[in-house]
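Progress narrative, Year 2. Work on histidine kinase from Sphingomonas caseinilyticus advanced from sequence curation to structure prediction during this period.
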Amino acid sequence: MTPGEEQRLDWRRGSVAAAIAFVSTMVLLGMVVLVAISNGARDRALQAERHAYDVTLLTRTMDASIARAEAAVGRYALDEDAKTSGSRYYAHWRLAGQQLNQLERSVSRDPEQRKRAEELRVLFQQRGQQFSDVARYIAGRQKTYGLSYFYSISMKPSAEVDDIGTQLRGKLSEIADAERAALSEKISETQFFSAEANRLTDYLSWLGVIVGLFGIFMGYVAVQALRQNAAARKEAESESERAQALELAVRDRTQELWEANQKLKAEAIERLAAEAQLRQVQKMEAVGQLTGGIAHDFNNMLAVVVGGIDLARRRLNGPRREIMTHLTNAMEGATRAAALTRRLLSFARSEPLMPERVDTAVLVGGMSELLDRTLGERIKVVTDLSGDAWPVFVDPHQLENAIVNLAVNARDAMEGTGKLKIRSLNKHMKASEVGDIRGGDYLCIEVTDTGCGMTPEVKERAFEPFFTTKAVGKGTGLGLSQIFGFAHQSGGEVGIESSVGKGTTVSIYLPRTDAEPSNVRAHPAMHARTEEDMTVPGARILLVEDDPRVRTATVGALEDLGYEPVACASGPEALALFDSMEFDLVISDVIMPEMTGPEMIRELKSRHTDIAVLFVTGYVGEGEGEDLIGYDLLRKPFTVSTLSSAVATALARTPRGAPTESRRSGGAAAAG
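Result:
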C-alpha cells in the first residue's frame, strides 16, 4: 500500500471515529437532558405533594379555630366573666379568617378548589353572623334569649334554622378530601419520576463508562493522527521545495512563451496588414477588370453609334438607303449599350424588379416561338414543365431574360447544334444545400445543354462579371452575372452542374409564394403591335423630366406620334400645371430633385384618382422599387416605337378610356 493510500485510510478511520464520538456525545447529552427532565418532574411532584399537605393542614387548623371560636361563644353565653370569654371568641374567629385567606391563596390555581373556597367563604361569613348575633344578645343583657339562640345554632338543627356549622365543616372536609385525592396522585407521579430518574442515572453511568473508554481510544487515535500529521508536514515541506523549483521552471518557460507570443502577435499584425494590402490589390484588380470590360464594350458600342451618326450626317444629301443603314447601325450600337447597362444594374441588384405571381408553365410555354427564333433551327428545344409547379413571386420580364440568356449561352456552348432541355420541378431545399440558399420550398427551373461543358476553374468563375470564354465580340460575360443577380434579388439561388464534353445544367431556384395575383406590371416592350394600335392621337400628356435633353427628345417623339405633350422639369411644376389643365396621362421620371416621381404621383392621386401614369427610369434607387408597384414602367433608353407602345398601353388602362372627341380632333388639327 502506497503512503498516499495509507494516509487516505487513516483519514477514513479518523472520520469514522469522529462520527462515533459525535453520536456518543449526542446520546450522552440526550441522556443528561432526560435525567434533568425526570428530576424536574419529580421535584414538581414533590412540590405538589407538599402543597396538598399544606392545604389539608389548613383545613384542619381552620376547623379547629372555628371550633374554638364556637366554644368561646358558648362560654361567653354561660360565663359570668363575659369580657374574657368575648375576647377569646374574637381572637379565635379572626385567626380562622386569616386561615381562610391563606387557604384561598393556596387553592387559587385550581378552579374547582377555588370554587369550594368561595363557597366556604360564604358559609364562614354566615356562621360568623350567627356568632355575632349571640354575642350581641349577651352584650344587650338578653342572656336567656342569647343562650337559647346559641343552643339552637350549635346543638341540634331545627327546621327554622340552617345548620351552617355542619355545612361549614362539610365544605372543609370536601376541600381536604380533594387535596388528599390530588396528594395520592402526586405521590404516584413522584414515585414514577423518581424511578425513571434513577433508571436514567444508571444508564448515564454506564454511558459515562463507555464514553470514557471511547475517549481513551480517541486519545490513541489522536496520537496516531499527530504522528501522521508530522509525517505529512515533512512530506509537504519536501513537496513545497519541489513545487518551488517547478514554479521557477514554469516561470522561465512562461517567459519564453510570452516572448514567443509577442513575436507571433507581431507576425500576425504584419500578416493582417499584408492581407489587407492584398485584398486592396485584389479589389483594385477587380475594379480595374470591371472598368476595363465596361470601357472596352462601351467604346465598341459608342464607336458604332458615333460612326453611324457621323456617316449619316455626311450622307444627308446622299441616298436615303445608305443614310438609313448608318442610322440603323448606330441604333443597334445604342441598343446594345442599353442592354449592357441593364445587365450591369441587374448584377448589382439595382435594376428595378416589378414582381408578381407567375405560373412558370404558362410563361415558359409562351416562350417557345421566341426561343426557336433566337436559337435557330439546328437547336432542338425540349420542355418538361411540371403541371403542379409551385407559383413564384418574381419579375416575369427578368425571368424571361434569364431563360433567354441561358438558352443563348447553351447555344454557344453547343456551337449551334444540339439539344436544349428546359425543365421545371418542385423541390424542398435545406439551408446552404446550394450556395447560400435558405431552407424551404423552391421551384427549380433547369436549363440543360449537350455542349462542351465547363472545367472546374471556369465553373468557379462563371458568375464573375465580364468573365467569358467566348471569342472576342461573341459576348460580354454578363449573362450568368445577370442571372445570378436576378435570382438573389428574388430571394433565390443559382446552381451549376457541368462535365467537360457532356454538357451543363444551370438551375434557377425561386422561392415558392402564396401571394395572390396582383396588378403589378412592367411594360412589355417585346409585344408586337401595329402602328394604329400603338397611338391614341389627341391625348394630352404631361411629361415630367429633369434632364432637358431627354425632355426635348421625348416631347419630339410624342409630337411625332400625334399626342399633345406639355413638359416640365420638376414635381412641384407638374402639380401646378394640373391645377390649371387636364391631362390624360402623366409620364414621369422616377428619381428627380425636390420631389421624386412616386412622391409626386401620390400627391397627384390624392387630387385626381383616375389619371393614367407611366414611369420612365434608367435606375431605381434603394427603396424606390416598392413605390412603382401597380404602375407601368418604361426603362431608358427607349425607341419611339417602344414609347408609342408604352403610352398606348398606359392610356388603355385609364378608367376614363380614350381621350375626349374634342381633344382628339384638336390634336389631329395640330398634327396636320
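The radius of gyration is 63 Å. The first helix runs from residue 3 to 78.
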